[in-house]
What does this fold into?
Amino acid sequence: MIKTVTYTLIILIMVSCSANPYRKISKLQNHKIDSLKKELSVINPTLLYDSLNNQIETAYIPTVNLGLRKPNFVIIHHTAQDSLAQTIRTFTLESTQVSAHYIISESGKIIHLLNNNLRTWHAGASKWGNITDINSCSIGIELANNGKQPFTNSQINSLLILLAKLKKDYNIPTANFIGHADVAPKRKTDPSIFFPWEKLSQNGFGMWYNKPDLLPPLDFDVENALRRIGYNTSDLNAAIVAFKLHFVKLDLQPTLTNWDRCVLYNLYKKY
It folds into this structure.
């Protein structure tokens, strides 16, 4: 009888672990969220002092008008890893210090890693327009892809469905669906030259150009145009490459051909 009970317990433990192999990680995530709750619950007034080191009178009076952050951007990445399992491991190890809200597998399976209202660490050092903390205002989506091959139809179809929900839920502007390379042109090239930005734009996610039919004026300011779209032009060559990676895809040289200038001018007029 004792042996039977022991075997039953072992089987139950094995089934439980196999049913939820990420139970330990989920527990750790909950622990971190609880820590954030404790930090937010602190109601001590801020201590402030003037130039003579005299304490300024302060008080804490709670307001009922509050809410969670509202994501206003979606940043699309490719994982640059060789398997979905490898990416999941990377995003669930504390030591890596990287994460995202979603991963989409080659088969189209969507894996949600963190509540959309919380801040993941997917964009790193990045800038778009005047925003220098992209992680705080964006949702990060990783597509399982090593960056050297096309994305699957199933993957892109799932992405479009997910983007439609995010756009509706958070009222994200069409222009605010961009890539990691757009916000970090010196460091990143994802989601790679294979990513179908035009198809996304046709579905309402991201800007695209009409077929250019006129050259820009002779005094057209390329740097100003890139900056108006959102690119960080402190390294102009890197910004040009990121622009071409997203919108042109013919070559990735840090120079603009007449065609490239036409495309840029067409987009410039839309912003």
